[in-house]
Amino acid sequence: MTSSKSIAIIGGGITGVTAAWKLSKYDSNLTIHLFDQGRRGVGGRTSSRSVVSTATGTGGDDDDDDDDPGDPGEEDCEEMLRFDHGCQFFRADTSQFREIVTGEWRPYVREWKGHFYKSNKTTSSSSSSSEREFFGMPSTPPFYVGLDGMQSLTKNILDHVDKNISSESESSPSLRVFTGTRVANLERDPSSQKWKLHGTSGTAAYHDTSEKVAQQLNNTQLLGEGESGYDAVILTDVSSSFGKWHRASAGVPEHFAKKVRERVGARVPLFSAMVAFDGGTGIPFDAASFDDDPVVWFAARSNSKPGMEGGKKECWTIVSTPEYAMAKIKETPMQDPKTNEFIPQSDDYLTSVPGPDLCNAFKRSITNRDGILGENALESLPEVVHVDAQRWGSALPCHRHLRSDDSATTRRIISGVTYDAGRFPLAPTKEEGGQADVGGCGGGGNGSFLVDEGMMLLQAGDMVSNHTPGLESAALSGYYAAGYLHEKLHSCTS
């Protein structure tokens, strides 16, 4: 690449971070700008949360970027409650991703070797055992986690990129990360054929800000390269292709947004609850898949993960079934049916409905002989001292064979969004085949992402990949999209 090129990556989850990492490895005069909308920084579905626990209860989230020594250091502070409230662990089944994880990413990854469990009772009406397991847990190890919580993985990779770039020559790529920034509209200049990004930052950008406040604070402006624009854009969140009512909408050109929606087909929603008990529970496992529970699909003890051990209080993340999540989204949709405005998830709702629902269902299963432990059910559990929850409206894509099947009995359309609760095996990660019109570039990348070559606009992520859904698929999608983009831009200037 002989002339300077610039690339915008929209979304700082594992797809966007992997794409930035891959692009930074090329010896080229390249500018990489990554835009992330999250309140807690990069991470996306690989998000972690810390809550200050005091003698009088639990306080608000502890911001990783807050270096004020007075914040959590008061005398009544007991400990920090820590949770992975999105992706719980990841797989490395493909040779390409296994090479990455055991190679350059090795300092930031650890194998999670806990005591894993799965109920042995499956009713005749249930799906097969492999379909009920949560990403192959527990029957298909190994399972990997970030060294210090799942969110540390994305942050450490970007720190690694920044350090490598700083130590290289002036001709090496440059990377800049814009956090708390929403890209709300994409505009392609017909003369320069470059993309201009418009959006906002701060409170108005966050998913959980009320629509009224977001509109009052609206300060839409040119982002990043401004008038100079970008030669290419990589989208990593399929919600970018929602209508403008959605807080994550990026104003993607409709012809491409339609292609993305058709490729995804339907989304699998989930809720996660973060629950802390006042002391050890005596639960005889660190993580488990729940076969037949209508509310709980998976639960993990955060204190058992490498880098998150210790603490007097026992912290658990409880993941809902897709069926439960769809029922709750139908009751409390993301779009107002009268005004069509976006309805953000509120703390009041999350801590009064899905949080307690998941907590109580988990407790019932642990202490009831009809639950996951059967005859070994516990008599009681310690007092719950903290409950919170998170809604993941686009947790996974539906199974490939259900993408275009609108007649599927597990499918529902809620507020114009297609959801599906169909279960399917999530391990091992493998290429499942797919459409021939998706972009790809060498190394088995065909089918990993969507691209409009004429506009240099790409959509990456496990939602559009032909690999089994999950972090591995999402990372590979970003990896192959970056490789493809490098070759295309290089061929244009060679």
Essential attributes:
six-stranded mixed β-sheet, 10 helices, 22 strands, single chain, alpha+beta, 494 residues
Summarize this structure briefly.
Helices cover about 20% and strands about 25% of the residues. The protein is of the alpha+beta class.
Helix content bin: 10-25%
Structural class, from secondary structure content?
Answer: alpha+beta
Number of helices: 10
Which geometry do the CA atoms define? globular
Percent strand equals 15-25%
**Which spans have pLDDT < 50 for at least 5 consecutive residues?**
63-75, 434-445
Number of strands: 22
Q: What's the structural blueprint in terms of helices and strands?
A:
Blueprint: E1 5-10, H1 14-24, E2 30-35, E3 48-54, E4 57-61, E5 77-84, H2 95-102, E6 109-111, E7 116-118, H3 129-132, E8 144-146, H4 150-167, E9 174-178, E10 181-188, E11 195-201, H5 211-216, E12 221-222, E13 232-235, H6 254-264, E14 267-277, E15 287-289, E16 296-301, E17 314-320, H7 322-331, H8 347-352, H9 354-367, E18 384-397, E19 411-414, E20 417-420, E21 450-452, E22 457-459, H10 471-493
Parallel strand pairs: 1-2, 1-13, 2-9, 7-15, 13-22
Antiparallel strand pairs: 3-4, 3-5, 6-8, 10-11, 11-12, 14-17, 14-18, 15-16, 16-17, 19-20, 21-22
Helix pairs in contact: 1-4, 1-10
